């Protein structure tokens, strides 16, 4: 929607007032009485486009109000990383009307310097000079968690961490479906400070479907509930094809936690799975004997044993076969969301246990949940050894190579964190995931593409999300630094860091609503310290 002529004139008046005063309050009134407008109409130069104003008026614009969607927001002078893997470009002005990006205008830096740049008008603006803008991050593997091991945990904690680190969309892959469906609606309506949700419900709830008829019925039941997709665990071959076929018929996408099961990556490829979560089923499909060399007392239900032996799985994949498996996945249209971060404690337990963020950002419920305890999923470290870590380091090396080869062969790599387990904290986990994609050998432009355009493609939202592009939903992150140089700019700035305080997210914009990211993170710190005081009483 173009700005009205009155809108343009209001801005000219602000410009006049600027010339008579050195100091202009950020809150300078934007509404001008009609009578004054009428007198200005006679004298104002109205030949220029209503959308463009001279640079001298910029300081008179209003800063965003945290959590309030302006009618027209302009992010000024940003270096833009579009999200599709193309190089950074700027400075640019990004125009957002309502919840959509409507225009992106390249600015001549020389014209900015000498004050002749024509800039789009705005109700509200963010000065992004010296800052980078990237698409809102999509967390492809999240779990909405309002409790850990029976202890209540505030959703506000999780949501503010996500938004505070630039996560604007979460694909929820199994939680309490009815609750998360409500949150999805409330987030869309702007009633809750939270990312967008895509709800992938657990397929195998009790009673677990026993045959093709029951399997297809379960998929239809979930469709009736209004979910966006399915989350599979531990599938057998006889129902796998029918479930994926029925899901396709019902317009549901499918994320499969691919463990060591009867079905592996080749079955996923043959039946058109949407995304393979984690990894086990990839090397498992490339073992010449068809089964890993387990010790005779191996029990898959024993988490300590399972994670220990998982650290010896990639080395058993036969390299030539592995390439065939990766090719089959590409041909079958299966995307891969490796969730590298969620296994990192296995290769370096001390790092996991002593992350500097914990002091201020680790909620006591999560702290308790992460401690070794066989009743909590993923806390299997009671007897973790240097030998386990050495195997896991080798495991990662082969895994990194496989993910790189998969993309080189044409595969779509996504990015998700799976936080709330194994020493990964919401938001921090996704940024760590990005760092691990870089460690795997991907250039940072591709890493950011994994978490934006690729994830949007996997969600089937490639025309709405994951790019800084006119027509797309206004989900954006304004960063105090260059993420192509340092992905750590997404983390909260740390005064005590050896590498310096870092940048941090300045603004997270979700659905056209700007959030002051550092304010959200401050509120998380307050929430955590209050909870700690409560739990120590
Ligand atoms: Zn998970």
From TrEMBL:
The keyword Ribosomal protein does not apply. GO terms for molecular function: hydrolase activity, acting on carbon-nitrogen (but not peptide) bonds. Keywords: Hydrolase. Residues 435-488 form the Amidohydrolase-related domain. InterPro entries: Amidohydro-rel, Metal-dep_hydrolase_composite, Metal_Hydrolase, Metallo-dep_Hydrolase. SUPFAM superfamilies: Composite domain of metallo-dependent hydrolases (SSF51338), Metallo-dependent hydrolases (SSF51556). This is Putative hydrolase. It comes from Gemmatimonas aurantiaca (strain DSM 14586 / JCM 11422 / NBRC 100505 / T-27).
């Amino acid at each position: 929607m173009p700005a009205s002529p009155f809108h343009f004139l209001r801005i000219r008046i602000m410009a006049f007032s600027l010339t008579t005063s050195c100091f202009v309050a950020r809150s300078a009134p934007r509404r001008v009485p009609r009578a004054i407008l009428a007198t200005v109409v006679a004298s104002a130069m109205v030949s220029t486009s209503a959308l463009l104003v001279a640079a001298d008026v910029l300081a008179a614009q209003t800063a965003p109000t945290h959590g309030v969607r302006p009618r027209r927001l302009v992010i000024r002078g940003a270096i833009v990383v579009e999200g599709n893997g193309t190089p950074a470009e700027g400075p640019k002005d990004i125009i957002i009307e309502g919840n959509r990006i409507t225009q992106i205008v390249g600015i001549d830096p020389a014209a900015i310097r000498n004050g002749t740049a024509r800039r789009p008008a705005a109700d509200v603006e963010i000065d992004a000079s010296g800052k980078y803008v990237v698409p809102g991050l999509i967390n492809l593997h999240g779990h909405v968690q309002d409790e850990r091991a029976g202890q209540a945990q505030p959703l506000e904690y999780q949501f503010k961490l996500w938004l505070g680190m630039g996560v604007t969309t979460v694909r929820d892959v199994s939680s309490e479906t009815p609750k998360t469906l409500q949150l999805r609606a409330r987030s869309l309506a702007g009633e809750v400070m939270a990312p967008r949700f895509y709800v992938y419900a657990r397929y195998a709830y009790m009673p677990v479907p026993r045959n093709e008829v029951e399997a297809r019925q379960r998929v239809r039941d979930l469709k009736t509930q209004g979910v966006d997709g399915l989350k599979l665990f531990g599938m057998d071959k006889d129902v796998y094809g029918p479930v994926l076929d029925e899901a396709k018929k019902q317009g549901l996408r499918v994320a499969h936690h691919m463990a060591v099961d009867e079905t592996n990556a080749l079955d996923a490829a043959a039946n058109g799975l949407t995304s393979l979560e984690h990894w086990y089923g990839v090397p498992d499909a490339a073992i010449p004997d068809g089964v890993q060399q387990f010790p005779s007392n191996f029990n898959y239900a024993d988490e300590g044993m399972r994670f220990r032996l998982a650290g010896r799985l990639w080395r058993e994949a036969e390299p030539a076969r592995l390439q065939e498996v990766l090719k089959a996945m590409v041909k079958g249209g299966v995307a891969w969301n490796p969730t590298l971060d969620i296994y990192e404690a296995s290769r370096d337990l001390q790092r996991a246990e002593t992350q500097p963020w914990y002091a201020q950002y680790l909620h006591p419920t999560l702290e308790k949940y992460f401690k070794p305890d066989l009743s909590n999923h993923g806390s299997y470290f009671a007897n973790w050894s240097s030998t386990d870590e050495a195997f896991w380091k080798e495991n990662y090396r082969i895994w990194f190579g496989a993910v790189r080869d998969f993309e080189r062969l044409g595969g779509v790599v996504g990015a998700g964190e799976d936080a709330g387990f194994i020493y990964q904290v919401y938001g921090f986990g996704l940024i760590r995931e990005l760092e691990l994609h870089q460690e795997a050998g991907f250039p940072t432009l591709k890493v950011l593409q994994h978490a934006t355009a690729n994830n949007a493609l996997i969600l089937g939202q490639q025309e709405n999300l994951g790019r800084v592009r006119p027509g797309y939903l206004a989900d954006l992150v304004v960063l105090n630094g260059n993420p192509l140089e340092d992905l750590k700019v997404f983390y909260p700035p740390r005064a005590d860091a050896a590498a310096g305080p870092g940048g941090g997210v300045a603004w997270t914009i979700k659905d056209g609503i700007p959030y002051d990211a550092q304010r959200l993170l401050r509120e998380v710190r307050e929430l955590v310290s209050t909870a700690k005081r409560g739990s120590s009483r």
